[in-house]
From TrEMBL:
Annotated transmembrane regions: 6-25
Cross-referenced PROSITE patterns: PPIC_PPIASE_2
An MF annotation (GO) of this entry: isomerase activity
Name of this protein: peptidylprolyl isomerase
Stored PANTHER family: FOLDASE PROTEIN PRSA, PEPTIDYLPROLYL ISOMERASE
Keyword flag Transport: no
Reaction(s) catalysed by this chain's protein: [protein]-peptidylproline (omega=180) = [protein]-peptidylproline (omega=0)
Pfam families listed in its UniProt record: Rotamase_2
Organism of provenance: Metabacillus sediminis
Keywords attached to this entry: Isomerase, Membrane, Rotamase, Signal, Transmembrane, Transmembrane helix
Domain PpiC: 153-243
Superkingdom to which the source organism belongs: Bacteria
EC number, UniProt record: 5.2.1.8
InterPro entries: PPIase_dom_sf, PPIase_PpiC, PrsA_foldase, Trigger_fact/SurA_dom_sf
């Protein structure tokens, strides 16, 4: 995994922790309610004040750091007139989905947050690399040698319900026609030995799912379930197509700036971090000097 891809994943994990902390902190009550009991174990009580103090001890510093980082990037991006076009975010999101096999449970249920994450990542990269020179020749050479990085086949975000017999699959389809939720039916059929529900994105060359799945998905529209049972080596399945991304190859001009940032980051020593930007943005915080 290159430095840029690793940074993308790190940001995603950090934002997840950030969102979790803000969710709990949003439940904070008025000061006079700080002694409210939020849990009881026999005669022992846990007060809201104790609970929130523990949350701050566990997540407070990391969450505040993420908030400061975000503000630093936004302020300096305005200072240097750095912006990110929607089409750039669309392209990077499609490439990420098609290549990462991300499932809903791993973050795709909130695409708006992923778009924010991509925008933040690009702004940060632009700020960190704005003084790094990368030649046109180097960028063209990199594109020529790594063209496959900027191309992907049709990608299908699939969910499935796998069963043993055709009759069972037909019964599932009947329930779907009657208005049942695909997710609810998938949960009903789940077992320790059989994964049901979301499979993430699959592509033509992926061998982790039956070939019949890819063939069936090609004839389905987003938001549709398979109207006929799909036969596999292990039995039958009913599929649901959450989303389809049409395969394509991006031209050099389309990904030129992405390549520039990537090559510039690889020239930098150490980890990719917002840290060098704090001083320029005159950022200060509760925990004192940032390391």
């Amino acid at each position: 995994m290159n430095k840029r891809a690793l940074w993308f994943v790190i940001i995603g994990l950090a934002l997840l922790n950030f969102a979790t902390f803000l969710f709990f902190m949003s439940k904070e009550s008025a000061p006079d309610e700080s002694s409210e009991t939020v849990a009881k174990i026999g005669k022992t009580e846990v007060t809201r004040e104790e609970w929130l103090a523990q949350l701050e001890n566990r997540f407070g510093k990391e969450t505040l750091e993420q908030m400061v980082n975000s503000r630093v990037v936004e302020e300096l991006s305005k200072k240097y007139n750095i912006t990110v076009k929607d089409e750039t975010i669309d392209r990077e999101l499609d490439m990420f989905k098609a290549s990462s096999n991300v499932t809903e449970s791993e973050g795709l249920e909130n695409e708006k947050e992923w778009r924010k994450q991509i925008r933040y990542s690009i702004l940060l990269e632009e700020l960190l690399t704005r003084d790094v020179n990368v030649s046109e020749a180097a960028m063209k050479t990199y594109y020529s040698e790594n063209k496959a990085q900027y191309a992907f086949d049709d990608a299908y975000h699939l969910s499935h319900i796998a069963v043993k017999s055709e009759k069972q699959a037909e019964d599932v389809i009947k329930e779907l026609k009657a208005g049942s939720s695909f997710q609810a039916l998938a949960e009903e059929h789940a077992s320790a030995s059989e994964q049901q529900g979301d499979l993430g994105f699959i592509t033509e060359d992926q061998t982790s799912v039956p070939k019949a799945y890819r063939k069936a998905a090609a004839s389905m529209g987003a938001g549709e379930y398979s109207k006929q049972p799909v036969k596999t080596d292990k039995g039958y399945a009913v599929l649901f197509l959450n989303e389809k991304i049409n395969g394509r190859t991006y031209s050099y001009n389309e990904v030129k700036e992405q390549i520039r940032r990537q090559l510039a980051l690889e020239q930098m020593e150490g980890e990719v971090s917002v840290k060098p930007l704090w001083e320029e943005a005159k950022a200060e915080w509760f925990y004192g000097q940032k390391d």
